[in-house]
Each structure stands twice: as C-alpha cells, then as structure tokens.
C-alpha cells in the first residue's frame, strides 16, 4: 500500500483535520540513514509530521524544513518537505543505543532530548523565509509540534504520531494525524474532540490494527463526523542532481577545488538526504574550475 495524506473538515466546519500513512517513506528514510530502533522512531515521527506540515502549505513551489535539536544522543534531526508532502531528511547520529520506557516501548524523548528547540522554516517563495522556533516540551515530537503551532503560529492543534519498529528492526507501520481548531469553535466541539483523542489512544495500535487514515480520523472525531476533501500520495523524495552538486562544489572556491584536483583521484560526493553518490574525476574538477 502506498503512503498518502487525507485532508478534510469536521461536519460542523470548526476543525481542520488530516491524517497520514507514512510507513513506506519512514522505511526508506531509515534505510538511507541506517538508523537503529530508537533513531528510527524519532526520525520517523519527524518525517511523518513534516509531511503533513508541508502539505498544509498553500504555495505550490514552497518548502518546509523541520529541525529538532534536543540535546539527546541522536543530535539534530532535519527534515524537508515539499508542498505536496514528499519528504527527505537526515540525522546527526543514526546509531543511537536502545533506550526503552518499559519492555517493548522505545523512549523517543530520551533519544531526542528535552533541552532544546523545534524550528520550522517555511519557504513561501518570498524574499525571506518564515522562521518559527519554540522550546521542546517532551522530545516525543507529537507534543512538540502541538506546542509549536500553539505558541509560534497561534493555532490550537493536536498532533499524534506513531512509528512501530518490528523485532527485526524494520518499520512495521507509521503514521499520524493533525487536528486544528478554526476561529470561533465552541467549547462543546473542543470537548468532543478531546474526548475522541482520549478514547482513541495512541496512533500505533490503530495503525497496527490496519486502520486507514480515514478510519483514524473517523475514530478520533467521533460524533463530529468528517468530510474528506483531498487525498495526496506522498513518498520519500530527494531533489538532488549532479548539477546541484556541481554548484555546491564551485561554492567551495578555487583554492579548495585546485587541492582536490592535485590529488589526482576521483572525488565522490554523497547526498546527505539519499543514497546517491556523484563521482567527479580530476578532469571534471578541471571543468568546474573553468566555470569560476
């Protein structure tokens, strides 16, 4: 089954809702980064959240970067989403030790750390990007995204994320949902939503039972009902090209490139977001020098 995002509204029009199945894109990201289980769960939650947040953007060629620095062993998590919700990302330290809250439950907060920030950079194709940053609440990512929207964008939000890592360290299921109150939402709607969130519980068990994003939103919203408006397939997608790598090498400057050329060896450049490797011969480097 392919990953996808579904967007909609509660039937009263007071709540924007969206949910995602992100199993395949998280699997791909974990494979590229070579993450251990705790890092897979943390990185996977960030990929899932960033996909939904990127999909929320209204600028067709825009992008959204989610960066989490919590002071934990994983270091910095960086994820970039396009306006459709396709994502790519990397982590500073993918091989973190196993830490559990209790047997069978990975401690994502301990992996990420709780002394740091969550930063969102929105490139809306304007002169300057929008940058918002708030302190981490728990390092569990879902709580931190919820707090970010409330504090930085003044949007009451509920975000729930889940990544289930199997015994063989592969990603069994991944996904989540995002709910946002619109202005004027009455107290009774808020109460019903809170009841639905409490009743539904964690995302991972719902995904493991085979529930779709539509099922999850239906479960959470309960008697409020949901009107589904849009569905979009999403994937792990990197936009690196040889031309972009060439521009990056040129930006190193003449002296650096001349040093590389003098070594007389092929110079491989790996993309931090995917497993692409671009090989540059001394002759290729010479051609770059001509462009400076």
Helix count, per DSSP? 10
Distance from first to last alpha carbon = 47 Å
Task: Describe the global form.
Answer: globular
Strand order of the largest sheet: 10-11-2-1-12
Look at the helices and sheets and give the structural class: alpha+beta
The helix content is 25-40%
User: Mean of the pLDDT scores?
Assistant: 95
The tally of beta strands, per DSSP, is 14
Outline the biggest β-sheet: 5 strands, antiparallel
Description:
The chain is an alpha+beta fold and 292 residues long. It is 35% helix and 30% strand. The chain contains ten helices and 14 strands.
Question: Secondary-structure map with pairings?
Answer:
Blueprint: E1 4-10, E2 15-21, H1 23-33, H2 37-55, E3 63-69, E4 76-82, E5 87-91, E6 100-102, E7 105-106, H3 108-112, E8 117-123, E9 130-135, H4 142-152, E10 157-165, E11 171-181, H5 187-200, H6 203-208, H7 213-221, E12 226-233, H8 242-250, H9 254-262, E13 267-270, E14 277-280, H10 282-291
Helix pairs in contact: 1-2, 5-7, 9-10
In short:
With 292 residues, the protein is an alpha+beta fold.
What structural keywords apply?
292 residues, five-stranded antiparallel sheet, alpha+beta, 14 strands, 30% strand
């Amino acid at each position: 089954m392919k990953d996808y995002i579904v967007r909609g509204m509660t039937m009263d029009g007071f709540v924007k809702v969206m949910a995602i199945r992100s199993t395949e894109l998280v699997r791909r990201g974990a494979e590229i980064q070579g993450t251990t289980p705790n890092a897979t769960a943390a990185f996977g939650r960030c990929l899932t959240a960033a996909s939904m947040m990127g999909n929320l953007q209204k600028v067709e060629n825009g992008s959204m970067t989610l960066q989490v620095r919590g002071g934990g062993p994983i270091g910095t998590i960086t994820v970039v989403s396009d306006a459709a919700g396709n994502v790519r990302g990397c982590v500073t330290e993918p091989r973190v030790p196993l830490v559990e809250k209790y047997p069978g439950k990975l401690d994502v907060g301990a992996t990420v750390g709780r002394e740091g920030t969550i930063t969102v950079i929105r490139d809306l194709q304007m002169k300057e990007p929008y940058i918002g940053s708030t302190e981490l609440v728990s390092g569990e990512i879902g709580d931190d995204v919820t707090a970010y929207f409330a504090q930085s964008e003044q949007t009451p939000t509920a975000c729930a994320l889940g990544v289930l890592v199997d015994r063989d360290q592969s990603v069994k299921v991944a996904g989540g949902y995002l709910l946002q109150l619109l202005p004027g939402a009455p107290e009774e709607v808020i109460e019903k939503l809170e009841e639905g969130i409490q009743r539904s519980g964690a995302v991972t068990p719902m995904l493991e039972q085979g529930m779709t994003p539509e099922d999850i939103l239906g479960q959470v919203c309960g008697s409020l009902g949901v009107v589904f408006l849009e569905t979009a397939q999403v994937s792990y997608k990197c936009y690196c090209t040889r031309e972009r790598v060439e521009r990056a090498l040129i930006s190193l400057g003449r002296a650096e490139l001349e040093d590389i050329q003098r070594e007389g060896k092929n110079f491989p450049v790996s993309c931090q977001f995917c497993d692409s490797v671009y090989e540059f011969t001394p002759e290729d480097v010479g051609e770059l020098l001509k462009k400076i």
